[in-house]
């Protein structure tokens, strides 16, 4: 046995403690130690029952092993759990903190289960493009029924212990976390004295009982659209169906076959990439565990509009007091009213209780007076996207805010260095770019200005986690990471309209690729006017291309601002988006004026030109040091722009297709699109360097 397990016998109980910090991930070493401990307990005649426990119990298989030989290195998890179920002595799982994935499967292989209050139990494998691969799809249906098991596995969200008892996953909840092991021992003694079997009779020996004969076929059909592009959910359905149709032994074999497929899938490789990317994003040069953190108990938000109100909600949701400042009383009232309405919708949807609504509203206050911000620990400015206006706000904040207050701008494109420069405390200034709707979108771009101090950066990164955001650090440039890369993506969508593609074809090609929304629909949502104003701020960089978003400029001139005016690239009849012949004609006219020859364009060209332009810009961003790593860029697009997580993000997708192939396609369009291609399809220099160096990963060289 090794250090990953502590073994002792007390009275007639073998107590086996899992000990592989931080989460008892069931890597090969822990599996080996666990197998040895179980064999030792099985062979000890003084041992009448076996208790497994850990703090936390276990977060499941070791995700870092997947895709490597370690994942199936003996003893495999299925082997250990099958051995566990073969023991003739009662086995009991004492679940503290977490039992996730293989951790819960370990508990399910035990005959009995007791959980500590507040413990979370789940089978989140679906979030990694996998399925439970150590008996979960076969044992859970026999414990709770096939339909309940299917929903639980596909949902992939852990349950609290108390709910798990109601579902039948565990039998008991201990009175206190501290007494869990004692109560588990008492439970084991009860089992021994009552002569309980090592494995009690399954409550659902026929898991399919009560299901229609077409249940699984119907289930797949009902969810086909939602699961488009993915395979993991369908494998879960197949595995649970096997639990209904096969004896346990053969069901386990079927599960193992499906797991091997899943582990080897591009979908799982992408989702495992995202799992580690989310954890890597928090690793920032200059910020260490020793970096001093500032206390943030009181937040102020300037601007109670859509963004300001959404930002404020994030902090109220996390129990932090927020003061909203506006210039006029009616704007302030409107903002606070809208926040209350947002919470009321959550209550109607059952996501919030009425009490929680009032608790959160009680944390929100409003003022028209900057003096009331004097004791704020963090102030976030969310006023009109104009540099001069923002600079004036920061001059005022510099006057009224206490020393050490963090002063943040929610700007989406402007120069945070220029904002910091008007204060006497640039080290306390940072960009916190929330994405609309700010209380919903998980992405937060944390813009590190030239003089932002490590303490301010570390404090905002910690706060981002507290309010449930995925924080990605960006340097200062136009558009930071997301909007800078989204610019060429939108440029190509507009240009393709002139070259002969229709709005619907362009958007459908992108949504077919997995995007939540087509780029032209996004333009209408964000506002044609917003896009125009952004271009106005950068005309010197785009003037050499007379066609640059020409249609967007023309729509702006016609007052067609998108959804907000019921007409933009599309026309809006209620909530329905319809193609507008006027826009097609406008595109044709502009193409003729610009001498652009219209032609039939393939969906593949649409996706390649939009996506590869975005990726090429991302590689350039990395080269400039604006983004720290390519996986950070992936997180930006998965959490802020509706890119499909099952593709891993644009940069991961580029790595999967091969950087040499990416370069070849970009060079193709550079040549095939004539002068336009020469303007906009020059490969980023670092892409050429990566390919010349034979690199498979996108990293700075
Ligand atoms: N494997 C390897 N490392 C893991 C891990 C895991 N399962 N879970 C966490 N870590 C690492 C993580 O990378 C980080 O490392 C540190 O632990 C703290 O994590 C066979 C196939 C458990 C809720 O999907 O959801 O079992 O960055 O920063 O916010 O059927 O981690 O410090 O170096 O996230 O408190 C199923 C995944 C696996 C659970 C803790 N299990 N983990 O959250 O801390 S597949 C999961 C989480 C499986 C079986 C199948 C969370 C957490 P580092 P953290 P946290």
Salient structural properties:
single chain, 701 residues, alpha/beta, eight-stranded mixed beta sheet, 30 helices, binds (2S,3S)-3-hydroxy-2-methylbutanoyl-COA
What binds here, in terms of ligands, is: (2S,3S)-3-hydroxy-2-methylbutanoyl-COA
Structural class determined from secondary elements: alpha/beta
**Major sheet characteristics:** 8 strands, mixed
**Average pLDDT, all residues:** 96
The outline comes out as: globular
Order the strands across the largest sheet as they lie in space. 12-11-10-13-14-15-16-17
C-alpha Rg (nearest Å): 29 Å
Quaternary state of this entry equals single chain
Output the number of helix runs: 30
DSSP helix fraction = 40-55%
Q: CA-to-CA gap between the ends?
A: 44 Å
- Beta-strand proportion: 5-15%
| Number of DSSP-assigned strands | 19
Low confidence ranges: none
Overview of this structure, please?
- The chain is of the alpha/beta class.
- It has 30 helices and 19 strands.
- A hairpin with a 2-residue loop joins strand 18 and strand 19.
- It starts with a strand and ends in a 9-residue tail after the last helix.
- The mean pLDDT is 96.
- The site of (2S,3S)-3-hydroxy-2-methylbutanoyl-COA has 24 residues, from strand 5 and helix 3.
- (2S,3S)-3-hydroxy-2-methylbutanoyl-COA binds next to strand 5 and helix 3.
């Amino acid at each position: 046995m090794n250090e990953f397990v502590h073994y002792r016998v007390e009275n007639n109980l073998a107590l086996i403690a899992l000990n592989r910090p931080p989460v008892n991930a069931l890597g090969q070493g822990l599996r080996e130690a666990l197998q040895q401990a179980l064999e030792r307990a099985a062979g000890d005649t003084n041992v009448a029952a076996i208790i497994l426990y850990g703090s936390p119990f276990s977060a499941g298989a070791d995700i870092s092993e997947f895709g490597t030989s370690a994942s199936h290195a003996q003893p495999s998890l299925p082997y250990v759990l099958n051995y566990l179920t073969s023991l003739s002595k009662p086995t009991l799982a004492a679940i503290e903190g977490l039992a996730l994935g293989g951790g819960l499967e370990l508990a399910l292989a035990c005959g009995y289960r007791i959980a500590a209050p507040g413990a979370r139990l789940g089978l989140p494998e679906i979030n990694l493009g996998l399925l439970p691969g150590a008996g979960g799809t076969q044992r859970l249906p026999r414990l709770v029924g096939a339909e309940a098991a299917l929903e639980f596995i596909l949902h992939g969200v852990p349950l609290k212990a108390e709910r798990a008892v109601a579902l039948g996953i565990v039998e008991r909840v201990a009175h206190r976390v501290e007494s869990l092991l004692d109560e588990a021992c008492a439970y084991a003694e009860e089992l021994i004295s009552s002569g309980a079997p090592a494995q009690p009779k399954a409550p659902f020996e026929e898991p399919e009982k009560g299901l229609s004969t077409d249940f699984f076929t119907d289930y797949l059909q009902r969810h086909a659209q939602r699961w488009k592009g993915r395979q993991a959910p369908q494998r879960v359905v197949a595995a649970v169906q096997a639990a209904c149709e096969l004896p346990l032994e053969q069901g386990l074999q079927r599960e193992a076959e499906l797991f091997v497929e899943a582990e080897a899938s591009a979908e799982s490789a992408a989702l495992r990439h995202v799992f580690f990317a989310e954890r890597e994003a928090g690793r920032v040069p200059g910020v260490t565990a020793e970096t001093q953190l500032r206390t943030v108990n009181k937040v102020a938000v300037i601007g109670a509009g859509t963004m300001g109100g959404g930002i404020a909600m994030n902090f109220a949701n996390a129990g932090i007091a927020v003061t909203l400042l506006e210039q006029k009383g009616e704007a302030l009232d409107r903002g606070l009213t809208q926040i209350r309405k947002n919470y009321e919708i959550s209550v109607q949807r059952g996501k919030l209780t009425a009490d929680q609504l009032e608790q959160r509203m009680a944390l929100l206050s409003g003022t028209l007076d900057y003096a009331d911000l004097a004791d704020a620990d963090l102030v976030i400015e969310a006023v009109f996207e104009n540099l001069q206006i923002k600079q004036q706000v920061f001059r005022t904040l510099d006057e009224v805010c206490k020393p050490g207050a963090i002063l943040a701008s929610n700007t989406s494109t402007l120069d945070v260095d220029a904002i910091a420069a008007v204060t006497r405390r640039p080290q306390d200034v940072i960009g916190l770019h929330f994405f609309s709707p700010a209380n919903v979108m998980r992405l937060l771009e944390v813009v590190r200005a030239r003089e932002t101090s490590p303490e301010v950066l570390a404090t905002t990164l910690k706060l981002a986690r507290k309010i449930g955001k995925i924080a990605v650090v960006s340097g200062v440039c136009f558009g930071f990471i997301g909007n800078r890369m989204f610019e060429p993506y939108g440029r190509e969508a507009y240009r393709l309209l002139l070259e002969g593609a229709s709005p619907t074809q362009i958007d459908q090609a992108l949504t077919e690729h997995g995007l939540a929304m087509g780029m032209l629909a996004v333009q209408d949502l964000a506002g044609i006017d917003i896009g125009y104003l952004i271009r106005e701020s950068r005309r010197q960089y785009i003037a050499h291309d007379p066609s640059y978003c020409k249609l967007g400029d023309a729509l702006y001139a016609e007052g067609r601002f998108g959804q907000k005016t019921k007409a933009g690239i599309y026309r809006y009849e209620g909530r329905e988006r319809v193609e507008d012949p006027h826009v097609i004609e406008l595109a044709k006219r502009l193409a003729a004026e610009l001498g652009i020859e219209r032609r039939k364009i393939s969906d593949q060209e649409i996706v390649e030109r939009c996506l590869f332009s975005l990726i090429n810009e991302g590689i350039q961003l990395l080269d400039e040091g604006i983004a720290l790593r390519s996986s950070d860029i992936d997180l930006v697009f998965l959490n802020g722009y509706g890119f499909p997580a099952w593709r891993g993000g644009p940069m991961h997708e580029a790595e999967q297709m091969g950087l040499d192939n990416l370069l070849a396609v970009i060079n193709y369009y550079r040549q095939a699109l004539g002068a336009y291609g020469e303007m906009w399809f020059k490969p980023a220099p670092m892409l050429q360097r990566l390919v010349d160096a034979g690199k498979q990963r996108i990293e700075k060289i």
